Amino acid sequence: MTVKGTIASMGDELSVAEHKVAEYILQFPENVLLMNGQQLAQAAGTSAPTVSRLVKHLGFKTYTQLKVQLSADQGAGTDEFDGDEEIRADESLHSITTKLLKNAERSLHETIDQVHEDTINNLVKQLEQADIILCFRVGASYLVAQNIAQKWSRIGCNVIASDDLNQLLPSVVDSNKKILFWFISNSGESPEAVMGARMARQHAVITVGLTRLGENSLARNVDILVQTSQPAEATVRFAATQSLHAQFMLIDTIYYAYVSKHYQNSKRRILDSRSLLAEYKRRFMNSTHN
Question: Does the keyword field hold Acyltransferase (predicted)?
Answer without folding.
Answer: no
